[in-house]
Amino acid sequence: MNHQVLALCTGSARPFRGDEQSAIAKQAVTGTLPITAAGLAGDEQADLVHHGGPDMALHHYPLDHHDFWREQLGDHPLLGEPGSFGSNLSVHGLTESEVLLGDRYRLGTALIEACQPRQPCWKIEHRFGRKKMVKTIMASGRCGWFYRVIEEGEAQAGDTLCKVDDGLEGWSMARIFEAIWGTSTPQDPALLREISELGPLADKLRAKLHARLAAE
């Protein structure tokens, strides 16, 4: 199924909280953008320890979730912006339950692969000026996900996001997020180990799971 890309969004590192910087404030960009292994041309990350890199090249936060957040936050002005959650892709009709680890999509002329859910952090709450948003994401699973770039290319708003290869059956972004960061207690070490051995999983996340399991 094809999904129209309503906007491609980039951000630049800027003061966010005190001396700390962030590029979470993504804005829609017009025209054709190159897509490289690092992501969209012109997109920045302020914290290269926790953000960016080949397995976080593109962030996708579903536009479908904005209505849920309006119920939680009211008519917050940021919910009218396509990149309000730090998303690079603005798309309707695709959520965590439908996207499998390893799903491949053609975005313009680029080929991208879903490789991990997004772990929410405090910057979302600071950007929106609202407490408990991270807790709500953990409970609801409305986390978004990241793509790596398999083939570089270019894209623009109005292009389609077209699935060209299926990922691992049974391993949706929703299931993986719930197992690692969700509300299931106690966590299942066997399930975490199984996730850590999935081929398309982002390398940094795999290493974190190995470290967690080794510490138990």
UniProtKB/TrEMBL annotation:
GO terms for molecular function: catalytic activity; molybdenum ion binding; pyridoxal phosphate binding. InterPro entries: Benzoxazolinone_Detox_Enz, MoCF_Sase_C, Pyrv_Knase-like_insert_dom_sf. It comes from the Bacteria. Residues 27-164 form the MOSC domain. This is MOSC domain-containing protein.
